[in-house]
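Human:
If only I could read backbone structure tokens as easily as an amino acid sequence. I am handing you a single protein, as its sequence and its fold in token form. I hope you can help me see how the letters and the tokens relate. Thank you; the sequence and its tokens follow:
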Amino acid sequence: MNSVTFIYTNSLDLTVDLLISKIGSENIFRFNLDLWQEYKIKVDHSQFFIENPAGRCITSSDIAKFYWRRPFMTQQLYPNRKIRPEIVYMQEEVSYALRDMVNLAWSKGKLVLVEPMADARIGKFVQLKVASKYFKIPPYKFVSGSAEFFEKGKSSIVKSLTSKRVNENAVLYTTRVQEDQLDPSTPWLIQDYVNASSDITIVFVRGKMYGFELNRESFLDKTVDWREMGPETATDAWRVHNLPRSLEHSIVHFMHDLGLHFGRLDMLYANGDYFFLEVNANGEWAWLDFEGKVGLLEKMVEEISPKTPCHSIPIPRAIHV
């Protein structure tokens, strides 16, 4: 078999569908974790072997690059579905095996762009600490257990650290609140409200940056979180945003400090200033350039294709905060 890029994801991934349409299915081997039962897998001391549902086989020596996308467990994709405990156990065993296959590929210099589970190494508090060297950040605090931590009469925003569901049917979007009305028995991440005119998102791809903006006027009377407005806002309303050279310079240093080759940085733009919110080290990006008009899609294809040079992500190192 010719060298391929191994993409580890799930069957509901339109970004991977788009990449395959551009790179060619013959150049990609896709492993969908939620369909693990349809694959044949063997790992031993010398190599690993996988056969997909169509009968296509690869070994570790066939892999030129490894791209970690969205390998969600079935219960994560379908939280309302009842799954037998023994099936959950089996999938977790397969997930462990694939995770170590990723580590083996990483040790061989084949893992590109995305560091698996980077949020465990560089969560929001670490990000904000490092970001404070390069950007303005809204003051924040994480509190739980006492009403004395809340400022009376202060309007702030709350957001989730984990982005997990509050219950089966709800998630906590970024929400504007009065601090002293919050329940002190609940843990809260609280941040100062920024009266911003635009949301800014910047996709960083190994030194190249692609900026986009979203005017907030159309939804601020309903929510401060554009994601709550539905898929039209998430795709159609974003426009290209030209980044100042000084901001690009700061982003390069910030991403270098974190040891990241890829990330989607979220910021707010207010009165000429950029306020850093967070970087998602495996952030979605395809919806920002689905038709390939601004260069982002072309850059991602270049980095992921097995036909181009492989620039493996760095092995994690200590972060100086």
Remarks:
- The CA atoms of residues 124 and 278 lie 7 Å apart.
- The radius of gyration is 21 Å.
